[in-house]
């Protein structure tokens, strides 16, 4: 009983401080995620020592949080709109994954680190966090602009490619080495899983969830939706993929149903409780004591790689379709998926505590610089169009 009370007290303090920090950052037009990460660092072993990152209860809550987070990402990923934007988004996404992956891998590999470590560094730099960009686009009424449509389409493709890369890395951790056969198998399994679950799910989800929505019992729709996300998360895990691949697929399926908006409204309060736990625990894993002065140039170089590699992706878009600079800047912020890469690398014993701290700082920095730079670029583009 003492263990439960202790965990409850910690969860209460974590949630309150996370929301206060998130509110503070949002007042300055920044992502609440930054506040949650900093709360994790503050309450973690590096400073106050209030959070133990190895606490099994907190780890479980964080795992539920990340599953729900990717479920929400799937729910908000409109495949039809993505296909309409077409090749511009596809090219932006491919360039935006390949360039940071290659540059991140090459830099760390030539510094003398192992192939596995270098691959994790490259992979962590690939994934765009479109939430920050959407916030800026919404503020200046540009979500439905050409730049907004290209960025949102590219972000969906970016997420799918990122999850396939993550599946490959998880498989490599399981076998303990880099093997071509393992890479090929992981890519095939991940793609088959996403295609089959989405195809089968879309065929039957509408009928099933129409019935669920008509049920009189309270909470039927949210219970069925979360259960569906958990079931696909477990299935993904059983075939050697990351659990978040399954929950993302569940979101993609339910996005196609007529009950999509009802599900999004009902899942939001649940996510608001659990998702911050993931970001706080990610922050708590950051050991500031492991960072030495030699980390500063590494942070600087990785930050430059993270910025330039995504800026270049904007040139995958045709000039007549949207502002290449605007699209490139919109692809810069890293967030949840990058943190998931880093967290899995740390828990799998692939990356060190110092490298984890470096990657978290780089991710936070890209999230911090995007809003003040993107806003004037898109506003200037709007004036040109007028």
Concise overview:
By secondary structure, the chain is mainly α. The chain is built from 16 helices and no strands.
What can you tell me about this protein's structure?
The protein has one domain: Na+/H+ antiporter like fold, CATH 1.20.1530. The longest helix is centred in the middle third of the chain and has 35 residues. It starts with a helix and ends with a helix. By secondary structure, it is mainly alpha-helical. The mean pLDDT is 86. α5 packs across α8, α8 crosses α14 and α9 runs antiparallel to α10. It is globular and about 60 Å long. It is built from 16 helices and no strands.
| Topology pattern, helix = H, strand = E | HHHHHHHHHHHHHHHH
Structural class: mainly alpha
User: How many domains?
Assistant: 1
CATH class term: Mainly Alpha
The low-confidence runs, each spanning 5 or more residues with pLDDT under 50, are none
Number of strands: 0
Overall pLDDT: 86
Rg calc:
20 Å
What amount of the residues lies in strands? under 5%
The CATH architecture comes to Up-down Bundle
How many H/I helices?
16
Major pleated sheet: none
Overall 3D form? globular
The percent range for helix content is: over 70%
CA-to-CA gap between the ends?
65 Å
CATH topology group: Na+/H+ antiporter like fold
